[in-house]
C-alpha cells in the first residue's frame, strides 16, 4: 500500500483490490466485482466484521478448492411465491443477492417472496440482503445457519449450533429504514476474530469455558462456547432459524455444519433464506409513515439516567454510508496490515490508498 498509511481508503479502489484478489483465484470478472462491491458495502454501512475483513478466509477457501470460483447459480425449485436457489458452492454473496432480488420480484406480484438457498457459503452481513426491500417500500427478512458451530444446545456441551443470525428491515419515512441485524449469540464470532486481529480482550459474558467460567482471551475461543442471547430463548430462536434456513433448504444444520475457517477444502452447503413482504398486499399504503410515527414516539421516551436518547436499529447508517463513499473508509491498522500481507501472499498490487 502506497503513501497514506493511516488515511482513508477510496471505496472504489478498495473494491477494485478485492475484485482483483478474487479474480486471481479464478472468479470471473463480473462475479468478482459483484462480490467485492457487497464486501465493501458491508464496511461502508458499518458491518466491518463481515466485510473486507473476511477476504483472507474467502481467498483460502477458493485457493484450497473448498469454494467454487466459477459457480453457476440456479433455481432448484420454484412456485409463484417461493423458490430454492442452488448456490453451486460459490461465493455466498452471489446466491444471496440472487435470492434477495428474486424474493423482491415475487413480492411485487404475489405480495410475498420467500427464497431459500442451499449449497451456499458465507455471504457477509444479512443487513445487505434486507435493506433493499425496505428501500423499495417492502419488509425484508433474512436468516442463515452460521458458518461454524460455536454453541451447544441449551444445557448441553456438544457444539451443534452456530451464531445463526437474523435480519429484519422495514421502510420508514425517516432518513433511515429500520434495519436490525443480529446474531442469536451475545456476540458474533466475527467480533471475536476482530479482537484477535487487534490484540484486544473479550468482554465478560460473550463466552464461557467448558468449566463454566468467563472466557475473555479471544485466542482461546476454541476452548469454550459462545453464549446465546437470552439463555434458552436464544437457543430456541437459533434452532428455529436452523430449521428454516438449513433443514427446509436441504442445507447443513447441526453436526453437518462445516467450519469454513478451519476447513478450507470441504463444501459447506450453507443454508440461508431471504424474504420480501409487500405491505400493499394487506391494503396498507402508508406503512412508512405509520412506522415513522411509532419510531418518533419511541425516540421521545425520556432516557433513563446515564443513558443516551433512544435510537432505532439502523439509525444514522444512511448518512454514515454517504460520508464513507465520499471521503473514503478508515481501515483499522490491523486490517490494513492483513491486506498488505494478503497482497504479498498472493502477488497482488495493494497500492489502493
Automatic annotation (TrEMBL):
The keyword Cytoplasm does not apply. InterPro entries: Mal/L-sulf/L-lact_DH-like_ah, Mal/L-sulf/L-lact_DH-like_NADP, Mal/L-sulfo/L-lacto_DH-like_sf, Malate/L-lactate_DH-like. It comes from the Bacteria. Keywords: Oxidoreductase. GO terms for molecular function: oxidoreductase activity. The keyword Hydrolase does not apply. Belongs to the LDH2/MDH2 oxidoreductase family. PANTHER family: MALATE DEHYDROGENASE, OXIDOREDUCTASE-RELATED. This is Ldh family oxidoreductase. The lineage of its organism: Bacteria, Pseudomonadati, Pseudomonadota, Alphaproteobacteria, Rhodobacterales.
